[in-house]
Amino acid sequence: MINDKDFKINVTSEIGRLRALLIHSPDSGLGKVVPSKAQDWLFEDIIHLDTMRKGEYDYYVKLLMYFLDEQKINGRLAEIDSPENSRSFYKPDNENFHASNKVIEFQSLLTDILADDETRLKLVASVCAIESCNYRLQEQLTNTNPVELAKIFISGSVNDDKMIFAPIPNLIFSRDIGIIINDHVLINKPAKKARTRETLLARYIFFNHPLFAAFRDKIIEIPEMEQYFLRPGEDNDERTTLEGGDVMVVSADHVIIGCSERTSASGANEAIKLLFANKVVKKVTIVKIPHKRDYMHIDTIFTQVKRNVWVLLGSLAIAKAAVNEIEPISWFVDKRLKDRPEIIQFFSDQEPPRHFKSLEELLDDISKHDLKSTEPTKFIYSGNNTFPFDAREQWTDSCNLLALKEGVVLGYDRNDKTLEAFKANGFKSIKVSKLLQQLENKKITIDDLQNILILMPSSELSRARGGFHCMSMPLLRDEI
Ligand SMILES: NC(=[NH2+])NCCC[C@H](N)C(=O)O
């Protein structure tokens, strides 16, 4: 049982030193995605599971462990990765699993709560209901041991062999299932069917795991709106939805919510009302972006690097030409104007809402006024702001970075032009494999790292359409 009586959740920024997070390592379900289902399951391609694990995600786990739970990994790299240990350090159902209570694995928490008979009964019934399982299967699952059952719920297969329902391959994007805002948990309401079971499992974890016991009355759930039930037809458009990738806690008082392919206007509206009513924050900014697969959540078009540094997609953030320089035809064929984000800020104290003309204007305001930065705000653009690299690199998550602490961020190693832009702004870069060796050989320590982009191998992970911001749900960060 993952436990810690001093465990706390508290996230008041995107960049304070990370102390605890929730992740999920690629499970066997990802290796079962078939081409015909890839798009329904929100993948653009099939992936090679072994490479994704050994060649990519395991590095992420090692780096997180070095940052967050060093004594469990320091000096052990060779042993952990030796072939005879067959990755047991990374496998939640194995006795050599790291079982960190800082780098917390979703599957471990799920296993823990399934040990309780009542929770198991309820969760089996719920999963079977949404997956339309028959009664006998439900009985069989009820009598399955927690370790196996957790694996089945996640991978969709029994004994890694017989598929009884679809996998949930997007669970690696733990960001999207819920968001810690200060000491509250805002649970998502997924837009896509492929992500429904993830949310159900997460809901049970937050409400039932002892780790979160002290925070149970701080869990916020978004209700469906009455109007939706009364609409004719099966149309899903007006549903109340909100996914974690659209929520950014930029300061203790201020949350940004994206209105996107995944987060509906009514989802954002309900979230604002609940956040204000529960006095979680004083300010919520809505950033409405085009409903496009390329940018399903706002964290695919910008993330924060330092108090005064942001990485973002340029072509969306600024109009390429002033309106009066655009020829008449542009109004009909050029979607750029329509694609520009709409940004409105709301306040809990009834002050009138405030408009921002561009993403840059908003981010600059956050740096200067919310985060009290005294230095000029810097914008690092995807693909160095040149076509077609801006769009290509955004597609492979150049803008979706995870800050381990201020100025130390993790991103894919494939976004070369974005890397150039980082360098031009005074950042260094290092490959994760080299960094881990240096940490292990005590050539550097975590505290030495500053203004650096850590490059992570990415050929398989990037096909899943998310980066390290998506692959993390921060639970605790130091205040900045
Ligand atoms: N926070 C994010 N940007 N998450 C990315 C999620 C990617 C995933 N394949 C999906 O489409 O749902």
UniProtKB/TrEMBL annotation:
UniProt keyword list: Hydrolase
Record's keyword annotation contains Nucleotidyltransferase: no
Transmembrane segments: none
Protein name, as recorded: arginine deiminase
Statement: the UniProt record of this protein carries the keyword Hydrolase: yes
Pathway linked to the protein: Amino-acid degradation; L-arginine degradation via ADI pathway; carbamoyl phosphate from L-arginine: step 1/2
Coiled coil: none
Pfam families per record: ADI (PF02274)
Species per Swiss-Prot/TrEMBL record: Mucilaginibacter polytrichastri
Molecular-function GO term, any one: arginine deiminase activity
Database matches in InterPro entries: Arg_deiminase
Family recorded in the similarity comment: Belongs to the arginine deiminase family.
Gene3D superfamilies assigned: L-arginine/glycine Amidinotransferase, Chain A
Annotated catalysed reactions: L-arginine + H2O = L-citrulline + NH4(+)
SUPFAM superfamilies: Pentein
E.C. number(s) listed in UniProt: 3.5.3.6
PANTHER family in the cross-refs: ARGININE DEIMINASE
Any one GO biological process: L-arginine deiminase pathway
